[in-house]
Amino acid sequence: MNQNAATNDALPALTHLDADGRARMVDVGDKATTARTAVATGRLITRPDVLALVRADNMPKPDVLATARIAGILGAKKTSELIPLCHQVPLSSVKIDFSFDSESILITATAKTTGQTGVEMEALTAVAIAGLTLHDMVKAVDPACIISDVQLREKTGGKRGHWTSEGGDASGSVGVVPADAAPAASAHPHRIAANPRPSTAAVIVASTGGAAGTREDTTGPVIAAWLTARGYSVDAVTIVADANIAAELARVVATAPSVLLTTGGTGLSPTDQTPEGTLPLLDRQLPGIAEAIRAKGLAVTPTAALSRAVAGISGGTIIVNLPGSPGGVKDGLSVLDGVLDHLVAQVHGGGAHE
Question: Which of 57, 136, 149, 169 is catalytic?
Answer without folding.
Answer: 136
